[in-house]
């Protein structure tokens, strides 16, 4: 199998990794390039994650090295001026290059990168090692305590890092997390706030789920925090008590709100509702996934045994809700309602959604009608998108905002559908005016 990554949209600092600093209004191929002085070889085989900040991008890639061994590597491109891409890179990086976290020079020499995410100008990397507690590293800007290391420096260049975020002030049954085995299950970031879910192995051999957060908190996007007075931001991880950690399946962060998908198949939103980001959530059930733009919330839910729909609420200034709104709603916040796709939902199987700053992607497979076939073999994959498109981030060779979903992959400008036979979309991601599609072919 051969894996390729394509990107479109904002590219002023090379964050699309296509060797230019020009916005790309169509999907262009991302370039992965080893450092010129490196003698090692690495063949990408799977894109595990893409994380996009304001002007930088991270890729967590699985592949094989020169000895044929499987390994996971962290790559990056875009703006590195504040240390977002680690201590050894600076300026604009126009292609994906390996990021050296300098783990070999620390007590983390045996660790490997496992999870990534990014806030506006800050990068977070979870590194793991068998039989040892996970560690969380941060690097880049610290404007609102983003680094999670205390005492943020808001003027001048922030410390580069990577810094190891400490959880020694947090405890279970009076025992510091430093003295317990900790596994980081998931991490997500908004523009300037971060939420982390951890599983702690206690002394009695039981496990405890914990939810922590830091960064901007003025609008309640971090909910109720242990031992914290009301403040505009916090710079060290604190336990979030608003939602029970053991009930959470996943979570996504907007600019000033946070959405939690619960085991009860419901969604709870905390933080700002100024744009209607949380409207209707309390009445919604049978949910399977949730996503957030800066000012909106998107919920995938079953509408029948075989069919799912995307429900959206929040800002619609750039068509982010993907539906036609009545003209008499000019002074009223929109309610939660389905995105309007131009096809019967029963003819497609929704596989994944990806929410950027103010645009949304949806990966679907076209149903063949033969239910005896597996999902992998019964249909072709397509990506649809809508919303803000100022930088051409929907890849349709236009910068006009898109009010209703349109097909963005395979590209509608393609001369022949034959060009995409045997090529399957295996991943989608959306960032700050950027879109990413991973394609696998034989």
From TrEMBL:
<dbReference type="GO" id="GO:0061630">
    <property type="term" value="F:ubiquitin protein ligase activity"/>
</dbReference>
<dbReference type="InterPro" id="IPR000408">
    <property type="entry name" value="Reg_chr_condens"/>
</dbReference>
<feature type="repeat" description="RCC1">
    <location>
        <begin position="209"/>
        <end position="264"/>
    </location>
</feature>
<protein>
    <submittedName>
        <fullName>Uncharacterized protein</fullName>
    </submittedName>
</protein>
<feature type="repeat" description="RCC1">
    <location>
        <begin position="308"/>
        <end position="366"/>
    </location>
</feature>
<keyword id="KW-0677">Repeat</keyword>
<dbReference type="Pfam" id="PF00415">
    <property type="entry name" value="RCC1"/>
</dbReference>
<dbReference type="InterPro" id="IPR009091">
    <property type="entry name" value="RCC1/BLIP-II"/>
</dbReference>
<dbReference type="InterPro" id="IPR051709">
    <property type="entry name" value="Ub-ligase/GTPase-reg"/>
</dbReference>
<feature type="repeat" description="RCC1">
    <location>
        <begin position="3"/>
        <end position="63"/>
    </location>
</feature>
């Amino acid at each position: 199998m051969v894996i390729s990554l394509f990107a479109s949209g904002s590219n002023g600092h090379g964050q699309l990794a296509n060797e230019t600093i020009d916005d790309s209004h169509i999907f262009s191929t991302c370039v992965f390039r080893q450092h010129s002085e490196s003698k090692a070889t690495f063949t990408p085989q799977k894109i595990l994650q893409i994380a996009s900040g304001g002007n930088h991008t991270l890729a967590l890639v699985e592949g094989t090295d020169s000895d044929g061994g499987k390994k996971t590597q962290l790559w990056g491109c875009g703006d590195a001026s504040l240390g977002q891409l680690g201590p050894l890179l600076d300026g604009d990086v126009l292609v994906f290059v390996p990021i050296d976290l300098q783990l070999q020079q620390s007590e983390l020499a045996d660790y490997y990168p496992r999870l990534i995410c990014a806030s506006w100008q800050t990068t977070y990397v979870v590194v793991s090692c068998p039989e040892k507690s996970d560690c969380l590293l941060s690097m880049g800007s610290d404007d609102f305590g983003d680094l999670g290391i205390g005492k943020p420096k808001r003027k001048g260049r922030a410390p580069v890092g990577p810094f190891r975020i400490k959880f020694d002030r947090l405890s279970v049954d009076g025992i510091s997390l430093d003295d317990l085995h900790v596994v980081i299950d998931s991490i997500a970031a908004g523009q300037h706030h971060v939420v982390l879910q951890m599983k702690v192995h206690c002394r009695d051999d039981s496990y405890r789920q914990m939810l922590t957060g830091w960064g901007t908190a003025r609008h309640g996007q971090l909910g109720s925090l242990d031992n914290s007075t009301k403040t505009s931001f916090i710079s060290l991880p604190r336990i979030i008590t608003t939602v029970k950690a053991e009930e959470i399946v996943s979570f996504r962060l907007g600019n000033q709100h946070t959405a939690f998908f619960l085991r009860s198949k419901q969604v709870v939103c905390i933080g700002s509702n100024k744009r209607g980001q949380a409207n209707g959530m309390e009445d919604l059930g049978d949910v399977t996934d949730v996503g957030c733009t800066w000012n909106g919330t998107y919920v995938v839910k079953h509408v029948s045994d075989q069919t799912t729909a995307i429900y959206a609420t929040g800002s619609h200034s750039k068509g982010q809700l993907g539906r036609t709104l009545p003209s008499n709603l000019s002074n009223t916040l929109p309610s939660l309602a389905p995105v309007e796709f131009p096809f019967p939902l029963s003819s497609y199987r929704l596989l994944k959604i990806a929410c950027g700053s103010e645009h949304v992607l949806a990966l679907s497979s076209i149903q063949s009608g033969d239910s005896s076939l597996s999902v992998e073999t019964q249909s072709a994959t397509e990506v649809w998108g809508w919303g803000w498109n100022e930088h051409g981030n929907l890849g349709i060779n236009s910068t006009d905002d898109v009010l209703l979903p349109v097909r963005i992959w395979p590209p509608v400008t393609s001369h022949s559908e034959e060009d995409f036979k045997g090529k399957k979309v295996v991943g989608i991601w959306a960032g700050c005016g950027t879109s990413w599609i991973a394609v696998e072919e034989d």
